Amino acid sequence: MKKLLVSALLLLAACKKDDTTVNQPAYDGKWYIHQVINKEYTIEDGDTAFTRFDIVNRPGTDYIDFQIDAQGKGDAVMLWDNNSTTRPYEAVTHAFFRLDTTLCEITHLTDSSFQFNSIHFDGVSIPDRVKVTQNFFILGR
Fold it and tell me: For residues 77 and 69, what is the distance between their CA atoms, to the nearest angstrom?
């Protein structure tokens, strides 16, 4: 039994993946923005109060182009209302990536649709109060 346990542990250790880099995600390339949902709310003493809830439908010409290298880093070029901006991109895990300084979570991904959200906490320190901004992106090819 000891030999079996030792063999199993050695096998697991040999198969352990090195987490130093994240493979290139399947969402690299150009994605057209269909909808953005913006939420802003304050959590104070356990209660949530919404101060903003916008749903923005886009005509299908705005996009985010993820230009990602094999190490999971690169740029994200965003075209919105004919204004182009470029932000640094870095894959953190298969479910999370960093866009500039904002952490984003992938909630849905297929060959033709991609959804992610970002969350930002206001840095102003007020006891028992947190201001949160969330943006939900619905994209397609």
Answer: 14
Within-domain flag for 114 = yes
Q: Which two tokens stand for residue 35?
A: 């909808």
User: Tens of pLDDT along 38-71?
Assistant: 999 988 888 889 999 999 999 889 999 999 888 8
How many structural domains comprise the chain? 1
DSSP structural state of residue 126: B
Pairing state between β 96-99 and 83-91: antiparallel
What's the pTM value of the predicted model, to 2 decimals? 0.76
Q: Which residue range forms the structural domain that includes residue 84?
A: 26-140
Distances (CA, A) of 29 to 16, 25, 76, 100, 132: 30, 10, 9, 17, 29
- Distance CA(56)–CA(34), nearest Å, equals 8
